[in-house]
Amino acid sequence: MRTRENLGARARWCVGLNTIRQEGASFFRRIAIIGVGLIGGSLGLSLKRTGFKGRVVGISRPETIAQALELGVIDEGTSYAELAEGLRDVELVFLCTPIKRIIELLPQVMAEVSAGTLVSDVGSTKRRLGEVAAACGRQDVHFIGGHPMAGSEKAGVMAADPFLFQNAIYILVPGEGVPEDLHAALREMLAQLGAKVLELSAETHDEVVAAISHLPQMIATSLVEMVGRMNEEGGGCFLPLAAGGFRDLTRIASSPFAPVWGDICATNADQIGHMIDRYVDLLKDVRQRLVDPGSLERDFAFANDIRSQIPKDAKGFIHALQEILVVAEDRPGVIAEIATKLADQELNINDIEVLKVREGEGGTIRLGFDSGEAAERSLEVLRGLGYQARRR
């Protein structure tokens, strides 16, 4: 295995996996997915897209199983009440429920599966889940914690996407004593799904996600709450002006608390609290230096430089799109015309929204693309057709 040395001793990128094992998913013949929602459903579709020849078993609510079978996400399915039946003869299990439910199900799963089975999860915190798995006491069943850093604003199996893991970082937290053939097969299978596999310890994982995901969520939620309260107290003059940067910065404040964020806070409270303390200390320092523009200029320069180093080719929890704005007249077929002309150039629109419309005159349409290159090419096409268009 080759590794990328520039991440330090606490992280290991898994690249060149085919030098260890070329079978990947074919190493497993029967895979169970517990919780066939967005992530679990996407795993099923991704496995089928990449040619998995075995059987995918879904374990979820009866109505979800029915939808998953109809969509071709799974080959067979059972309800949670028939968990033992669903786990019979499986070689790999993915627990894809919210964290609290994973904690409830993991002891039963570890008890029911056959010797030699590999169990993993997709929870966004890792220390508590590793502790629960270790406490089960099955030395002949192996656990590797997992966290795919990919998602969507939508939930449920109907939102499942066979390309969800393409170019997404998939973190693995290996347990003690996992046989190397199982370990390598899981890594290779995830790589075949298009993911970039990164291995971390549970402690490092929870510290990192507290800084890059959990703290931003708390900041966005608190900032929107603050402005919302001020809007109520100030006669409603704040929200009408809250566009542009405020809207972009607080996009994730639309995330629901239950079930994901409630479970995250319950299982990573110490690290989130530590990151909040660090951020509060930094804000206090900035506040003291507001009268010294020179020092703040250095802060802005440092932040600009650091932000430019954030990888642009990897998905986060919700993949950021490259957006353009198009001014179009209000007439039948204008959106179809735009989409058709871009499709003719093999340019795919990943998201579309009508932002402003003045009936009978025109409006602004927001188009989202998966890459900056696609956005730039789309600008050229649309401008060549006479549309006013610009990057957002």
Write up what this structure looks like.
Helix content is 44%, strand content 18%. The chain has helices spanning 38-49, 62-71, 83-86, 99-112, 127-135, 180-192, 202-233, 245-249, 257-288, 293-308, 334-344, 372-384, and strands at residues 11-13, 30-34, 55-60, 76-79, 92-95, 118-121, 142-148, 169-174, 196-200, 322-329, 351-358, 362-369, 388-391. It has 12 helices and 13 strands. α4 (99-112) packs parallel to α5 and α7 (202-233) packs across α9 (257-288). With 392 residues, it is α/β, with parallel strands linked by helices. The strands form 2 sheets. A 9-stranded mixed beta sheet has the order 1-9-8-7-6-5-2-3-4, sandwiched between helices. The protein folds into 3 domains: 5-200, 3-Layer(aba) Sandwich (Rossmann fold); 205-288, 6-phosphogluconate dehydrogenase C-terminal like domain (6-phosphogluconate dehydrogenase C-terminal fold, Orthogonal Bundle); 322-391, ACT domain (Alpha-Beta Plaits, 2-Layer Sandwich), CATH 3.30.70.
Secondary-structure element sequence? Answer: EEHEHEHEHEHEEHEHHHHEHEEHE
How large a portion of the residues is in β-strands, by DSSP E? 15-25%
What's the average pLDDT?
87
Please bin the fraction of helical residues: 40-55%
Question: What descriptive keywords fit this protein?
Answer:
13 strands, Alpha-Beta Plaits, 392 residues, Rossmann fold, 44% helix, alpha/beta
